[in-house]
Amino acid sequence: MKTEQLHALFLDCTGISTDTRKVSKNNMFFALKGDNFNGNTFALKAIDLGANYVIIDEIEHKTSDKTILVDNVLEALQALASYHRNFLNIPIIALTGSNGKTTTKELINVVLSKKYKTTATIGNLNNHIGVPLTLLSMTNETEIGIVEMGANHLKEIDFLCNIAKPDYGYITNFGKAHLEGFGSAQGVINGKSELYDYLTKNTKHIFLNADDPIQKEKLNTYFKKFGFSETDSNYFKIEFIEANPFVSFKIEDFTINSQLIGKYNFTNLCAASIIGKYFNVELNEIKEALEGYTPTNNRSQIIQKGTNKIILDAYNANPTSMKAALENFSALKDDTKIAFLGDMFELGTDAIQEHQAILDLSTSLNIEAVYLVGENFFKSENKSDKAIQFISFETLKEKLNTLEIKNTTLLIKGSRGMALERILDLV
Prior knowledge:
Blueprint lengths: L2 H8 L5 E2 L10 E3 L12 H6 L4 E4 L10 E3 L3 H16 L3 E5 L4 H12 L5 E3 L9 H7 L7 E5 L7 H9 L3 E4 L7 H4 L2 H8 L1 H8 L3 E5 L3 H6 L6 E5 L6 E8 L2 E6 L2 E8 L4 H13 L4 H10 L8 E5 L2 E6 L5 H13 L5 E6 L8 H14 L4 E5 L1 H5 L7 E4 L2 H8 L8 E5 L14
Helix pairs in contact: 1-3, 3-5, 4-11, 4-12, 6-9, 11-12, 13-14
């Protein structure tokens, strides 16, 4: 079946599903395959649950007119998403970066929602499946689409750009993330910059942090750009005030007091502000949107539990974000501070030196104690009495069951696989 024909059927459906546990009545179900599952085997179940059509790529599962056979289900999903993007013909803003993608996407969304009907990536569905699902969630009512793009190898951002065909783009930063896949810090820069490459090749608009030397250099001669800076008068001026613990900053005559912690969130707030300005959202509405945004999903959340204040930032971690979180934590004026740090994943051959660097940094800062969890941190050389190493969460749990922590500010940060939010039940 041609993509155009598939799209006509899609327009009569209530949406897309790829999991029979989430099938809604009149959905179009895509029978995707994974390492441990084959969606084709759920085709009949999806129809029984109310799916209008089921897209399969194994002929033995074609049981009725509702089952549509294609060469490759994933490729059909991606082609349908790109066709739908062209069909809607709305502005698409894409963003990527090593850190802060999801937070920045959420901030852009709350700002633009003050003036437009937006559709944005849900959570961090930002890969070769998530981006198509985001595009297919857009409707005729959507006025601006906001698409987050993630990658851990070269050419992934380029691939996603060719599906989403963004008109605007922003890169949050270039950090030490997914070094195993990108090969090096320069590999990260090259990979994330594929968004710039697509936008410049197609003469599209770029938003930039002009205080980031890499961004500024790469876009030095490009003319379709709109950026922010604390110091460069060629770009929109935004003034940092403080982050103790929440970020405050000034834009024109407006002071914005956010509910986001850490100076590392300052540029995320700036990006949302200038994108709002570009799309003619009034400054008072930008202020209202940013001040009303509260982080969720283990991302820079502040939780009060008994006498303890907990900074929960356990959604993910890499050397760049870990360093920023620790330096921000050290700068807080709280009396007693303890950091719980979990292993950082996907660092490849750089894992040993990067974990050692974070251990060394954490013990040099204004932090009373550091609990390091995971095999990489456990193997690191420790020359400080205030750092305690645990090979696993279970060994940390045994230790915490013997302690009583009161009147303390805690930082909890680690890669998603460490699931350090479990510490909340122990302190």
